[in-house]
Amino acid sequence: MTVIEPDPVVQLREQMRERHLTPLWELEGEIMGVRPHPGTRPWLWRWSQLYAIAERAGELVPIERGGDRRAIALSNPGQGGMPYATSTLWAAVQWLNGREVAPAHRHTSQAIRFIIDGAGSYSTVEGDRVQLERGDLVLTPPWTWHDHGSDSEERAVWMDVLDIPLNNYLDAPFFEPHPDDSQKVTAAPNASVLKYGVGQLRPAWEPPSLGRSPLQTYKWSDTRRALDNLAKVAADPFDDVVLEYTNPHTGGPVMATFTCWMQLLRPGVHTRAHRHTGSSVYLAYEGRGATVIEGVRFSWTAGDMFVIPSWATHEHVNDGADPALLFSVHDTPLLKAVDKYRSEPHDSPDGRQRVTGEFS
Ligand SMILES: [Fe+2]
Ligand SMILES: [Fe+2]
Question: Largest Cα–Cα distance of the chain, in whole Å?
Fold first, then answer.
């Protein structure tokens, strides 16, 4: 009778398991990938559905303490059931009924709001109240008191983007409700826009604001004018006419962890494709067009929201007769800050992908 000696490697593996240790040689490929394999999937949410659901929530769900915001989050099917648009970005459509107030609070998540429709609504950040119009971008930097309300009978609807997934991954979330529903307004109406809205000029007695943007709200009329001016002189091969919202005193992005863009795709433009690390959330703001992501065509019209995951090849198309506008948020500043940004153009003779399907 032969005695089979236990395999010493198997024994060693068992000893490791009991001691909560894992040999790298068995799963090197899983944790040290040769290229990104994001869980985040390319996805698109239709405006007609977003709007109908937000409107119904406006009828059924009150805004109360504890549920400060009537926000409906984009839940990417690749995020394992978490209500995250990408691995770093949370995005939502938010609905505010006329005369409502979304109570004041503050949190360490960095946040922006892009107004889709909101006549009569306002936003107060650290005592500075700004009246809002369609196309305005509002910043709420980390740990700043903010509340939103409406002075009219009209509802307001906007897109929210926060770095909640990143904040949670880093175990760094803090949140605090303000003792009052609305904080005191301590500045003159629209003060931040009036003081800092012409970016290349600064009140001479003030030092530059280097840590965060001094401008709380970026007005649509300024953004539109800058886009139209840029379109007269220059465009990018991958994104056509595109502007980054900046801290006017540094030229840097509006948040440490993400940046915001407004993009004009001129009629007939079909950009070259590329890919880069970092994820993006888009809102089709005006017009119609398509974005080809990993060979799949995502057709969009105004109000649709969609996601481009890290390292997914993408290009934009406007095959209509009118201009198309995209607002977008990208975690690029984060990737660059930690030295993990990489990009490359698509390798094909015309710089475009072969379309293999249509998202439905
Ligand atoms: Fe908030
Ligand atoms: Fe890109």
Answer: 95
